[in-house]
Design goal:
By secondary structure, this protein is α+β, with helices and mostly antiparallel strands. Helix 8 packs across helix 10.
């Protein structure tokens, strides 16, 4: 589980912004929002342009480092705050990996080059690499059973880095030491690093509005082909019905050999040509998190209900709580109907302020918030206004 995330000098966040998933209240209701003393389900509010999308992108930035996956950045893209004179953005992650406290930090610049990388496990510093000085400052690799890797070869490689960048803005030579260890060390199966890699690989950032805009004919065909397998069509139909869209579905084979999806009424109605934006948004969610993904570890879903009626938004929150009990899910929204103790709890509903602070509702007022409080009414009445 991700316990704590901090980022500095990233996009609109000039100062350090902190998201503490380990800070929970003593509430006894909606306990499914907490898992092993960590916030597992949360909703994030914030005015327009406060940086909710940027926050989600920053949290999953670690995938770019550990897996070498170019996520959101291109060669000319900036990640540094425009008003800052610092030359790098700083990322801090603290995980609970099977009871072990794993801290991973790194700094990188606008060219997607690492400046510094550090790994700490249970307060023991495993390594620290200064890429600007091209030096391995700390080396306790024996503590993670990685002392046999060719560390001299790695140091020689980083000393010869010329900073070549490919068209995706990714360094072709510069390899983080953590990635080098994961790819080259014979780590034991219970290694916290292997479990960390698995957790990071299953982290997802999802923008509902962007996903709908990217829907193509090829995407529609691949999803329809997926629905033709076993009971997948019935499962998807059931999902739509649970979300409040009462319908029957049917697949028809095209001349080209693909499956085409239809609403099955008195006559067949092409699904993707007639489905509403809200229904297509549900398709994007289903396709990404149910059809083509196995057990996500962390989901940051931006504007998840941008096209939903408030009742559908509530249904999806309930669905996520039930479906992904072991997955951390953070949803961003402007829908204050979801600001209720019937769905969440005051330590799992957050406000992102314009000055880069994340504050849980229970910490945004002098009032002791209880289960009977109407959180939405308090919010609209200005109870938490100074934290916006």
């Amino acid at each position: 589980m991700l316990k704590l995330f901090k980022v500095y000098n990233y996009k609109n966040f000039k100062d350090t912004i902190e998201f503490n998933f380990g800070k929970i209240g003593g509430y006894k209701f909606n306990s499914e929002c907490i898992n092993s003393g960590t916030i597992s389900k949360g909703i994030l509010y914030g005015r327009n342009a406060t940086g909710k999308t940027n926050l989600g992108m920053a949290i999953v930035d670690i995938k770019n480092i550990i897996l070498g996956t170019p996520l959101f950045y291109r060669r000319k893209g900036r990640i540094l705050n425009a008003d800052s004179d610092d030359r790098y953005a700083s990322f801090y992650y603290e995980f609970d990996i099977d009871g072990k406290n794993v801290i991973y930090t790194y700094n990188r610049n606008n060219r997607n080059e690492l400046c510094l990388e550090k790994l700490i496990i249970d307060k023991e510093e495993i390594f620290e690499v200064n890429f600007e000085k091209k030096d391995l400052i700390k080396n306790n690799l024996a503590l993670i059973n990685a002392e046999t890797i060719q560390i001299d070869k790695y140091i020689e490689v980083i000393k010869n880095v010329q900073g070549d960048i490919d068209e995706d803005g990714v360094s072709q030579v510069q390899v983080p030491l953590l990635r080098f260890i994961l790819n080259n060390a014979a780590l034991p199966l219970d290694s916290p690093l292997l479990k960390l890699e698995d957790f990071v690989e299953r982290m997802r950032f999802h923008s509902v509005t962007q996903q709908i805009l990217r829907t193509s004919m090829r995407t529609e065909e691949s999803f329809s082909d997926y629905l033709s397998i076993k009971d997948n069509l019935k499962d998807f139909e059931k999902f739509l019905n649970i979300m409040g869209i009462e319908c029957s579905l049917k697949l028809v084979k095209t001349i080209e050999g693909h499956n085409e999806l239809f609403f099955d009424y008195n006559s067949l109605i092409p699904f993707f040509d007639t489905a509403s934006s809200g229904t297509l948004s549900l398709v994007a969610f289903y396709r990404r998190y149910i059809a083509f993904m196995n057990k996500p570890s962390f989901i940051f879903m931006d504007e998840f209900d941008a096209f939903f009626h408030y009742e559908m938004s509530e249904k999806l929150v309930e669905y996520l709580k039930e479906k992904y009990k072991d997955c951390q899910v953070i949803l961003t929204t402007h829908n204050t109907n979801l600001m209720t103790n019937q769905l969440m709890r005051p330590d799992c509903v957050f406000i992102l302020s314009r000055d880069g602070r994340i504050t849980a509702l229970c910490d945004a007022t002098d009032r002791e918030l209880r289960e009977g409080h109407n959180l939405e009414k308090l919010y609209i009445g200005g109870e938490f206004e100074k934290y916006e």
